Amino acid sequence: MPNGQNQQSRNDKATEFQGGTVHLVDADSALADDATTIASNESETTADGDWTISHDNVAGTTTLENAVSIDFGQTSEFVIDQIVVESTDTAGNYLIDNDPSGDLDLSGDGTFLLEAGNVTFELGGE
Length: 126
Known about the structure:
- The protein is mainly beta.
- The chain has one domain.
- The protein has one helix and nine strands.
- The chain has one helix at residues 7-17, and strands spanning 21-25, 42-45, 51-56, 61-66, 70-74, 82-86, 94-97, 111-114, 120-124.
- A four-stranded antiparallel beta sheet has the order 2-1-6-7, with no helix packed on it.
- A hairpin with a 4-residue loop joins β3 (51-56) and β4.
- The radius of gyration is 15 Å and the shape is globular.
């Protein structure tokens, strides 16, 4: 399988992040791939059922996606550089989206909501 992972090992990795804390991070606090701590601008805890896991064995991938909206409520003023999900099982273990899409400028007033299906991580593949 690509990257040395079969469906079970990709599923185990995705499951580790179900119910994890989602962090919104600006460029000043951006995480490197080897980061062990995080200084997020905003964060919200999710539950296992807030995420779906799907598999594409032809492509050798497993996808973790938010199944419900994640509501951050009132946000401070910053521009999102990364969306990070922190593992519930392993301290310092993160899934990092270094290139999130959508309206990432939170410099205005109001609340911020990540709609269902807007946070997707693909594990495996080439």
